[in-house]
Automatic annotation (TrEMBL):
One family name in Pfam for this protein: GLF
Organism: Microbacterium marinum
Ranges where the UDP-galactopyranose mutase C-terminal domain occurs: 148-359
Family per similarity comment: Belongs to the UDP-galactopyranose/dTDP-fucopyranose mutase family.
Keywords: FAD, Flavoprotein, Isomerase
EC number annotated for this UniProt entry: 5.4.99.9
Superkingdom per UniProt: Bacteria
SUPFAM superfamilies recorded: FAD-linked reductases, C-terminal domain, Nucleotide-binding domain
Protein's UniProt name: UDP-galactopyranose mutase
MF (Gene Ontology): flavin adenine dinucleotide binding; UDP-galactopyranose mutase activity
């Protein structure tokens, strides 16, 4: 074995694939029973509908190198992501656009009129002096749109009143003064034709790659543990950086999600893949309906059943899956201290969203793994 990789998410598998192609012998361990990290998906057994186990994953990128690379392992459908939101029992398109504004104000404003209206409403606060997230939100889009579409949704995401959240949590609230409600602005977008797991398995499918599942780096009863391997060979570590150092500089904080899955006896539950719930009286933030990610599978999917998943958001404990970095000032100080410790850890390369404590989209995790391979590991 020439290289040990801890974690089989997109970051770890990209390194593994590049190293194997260059003739290195690689072992990839993952503490979960499956490969793929948070991008893992599987068919719901009763319906055969592909479910993204750790929340809906939409692939999109404007990075030509990454796009060329991922297409070696999978073809992509022409799926285009769009999100709607339910506010007081009325459905509006997101991100906030001219359609949302005109529906909300029961008007037929032109782009210029809508822009003038939002600017006038936003005059209540100055974004630069906003004391908290609420003032910042109002300063960016005005009170009516903020209260309808941002306030309660944000409170549910953070389980905190936005008046008590720092203004920096939002840097901008994009408003589109046309009817374009395409969610992503990237050059390429789509879903893997035969699913995420087939894609991830193809990346790992090489004689030089040995994958060991249900294998925890910190479990000293298995041979690929930290104690036995650090200093013996190069290691790419994509688990939580604070856990690696036994929380010596404190715990970095994360939000997690809880998912409630249900098979509903109708062919179509909500008519679209993601419906947000903007108001406080609905406890979940959104509902995913997985069949709508793959309209091209209509022939294969049942017409009398559908799979939905309600999503709830909360702060993570050590036992929960870490999903989104909270990034408090204390977290940022802790991260700097961990980066210093990481520099001193000879032969261990920290990568991926957990190893660097940052939210990374899939294309970013893949792009940053390709850079690590080229710059630090390929020589
Ligand atoms: P991960 O996928 O988290 O992989 C890390 C792996 O390390 C895990 O499998 C874990 O089990 C393993 N590990 C941790 N500790 C140990 C240990 N001690 N021993 C062994 N193994 C260990 N990206 C998009 O581009 N589009 C989206 O729509 C999108 N939606 C998302 C929705 C949610 C809810 C979340 C959380 C993420 C989403 N992402 C999305 C991001 C995407 O999941 C990440 O980019 C991707 O998972 C990053 O890969 P990674 O390899 O860095 O981390
Ligand atoms: Na979102």
């Amino acid at each position: 074995m020439d290289l040990l990789i801890v974690g089989s998410g997109f970051f770890g598998l990209t390194i593994a694939e590049r190293a194997a192609a260059a003739g290195r012998k690689v072992t990839v361990i993952d503490r979960r029973h499956h490969i793929g990290g948070n991008a893992y998906s599987e068919d719901e057994p009763e319906t055969g509908i592909e479910v993204h186990r750790y929340g809906a994953h939409l692939f999109h990128t404007s990075n030509a190198t990454v796009w060329e690379y991922v297409n070696r392992f999978t073809a992509f459908t022409d799926y285009v992501h769009r999100v709607y939101t339910n506010h007081k029992g009325v459905v509006y398109p997101l991100p906030i656009n001219l359609g949302t504004i005109n529906q909300f104000f029961q008007a037929a404003h032109s782009p210029a009129e809508a822009k003038a209206l939002v600017q006038e409403l936003a005059g209540e606060f100055d974004a630069k002096n906003a004391a908290n997230l609420e003032e910042k939100g109002i300063a960016l889009i005005g009170r009516p749109l903020y209260e309808a579409f941002i306030r309660d949704y944000t409170a549910k995401q953070w389980q905190t009143d936005p008046k008590d959240l720092p203004a920096e949590v939002i840097s901008r609230l994009p408003v589109r003064y046309n009817y374009d409600n395409r969610y992503f602005n990237d050059t390429w977008e789509g879903l893997p034709v035969d699913g995420y797991t087939a894609w991830l398995e193809r990346m790992a499918d090489h004689a030089n790659i040995d994958v060991r599942l249900s294998t925890d780096f910190f479990d000293e009863s298995q041979p690929f543990n930290k104690q036995a391997t650090v200093g013996q060979l190069p290691i790419v570590y994509t688990g939580p950086v604070d856990r690696y150092f036994d929380y010596a500089e404190g715990e970095l904080s994360w939000r997690t999600l809880d998912f409630e899955e249900e098979v509903v006896p109708v062919g179509d539950y909500q008519g679209t893949s993601v419906m947000n719930y903007a108001d406080a009286d609905v406890p979940y933030t959104r509902v995913h309906e997985f069949r709508h990610f793959h309209p091209e599978r209509a022939e294969r999917y049942p017409t009398d059943k559908t799979v939905i998943m309600r999503e709830f958001s909360r702060f993570a404990t050590r036992e929960d899956e870490p999903y989104y970095p909270v990034n408090t000032p204390q977290d940022r100080t802790g991260l700097l201290a961990y980066r210093e410790l990481a520099k001193g850890e000879q032969g261990v390369h920290f990568g991926g969203r957990l190893g660097t404590y940052q939210y990374l989209d899939m294309h970013m995790a893949i792009g940053s793994a390709l850079s690590m391979w080229n710059n630090d590991l390929s020589a």
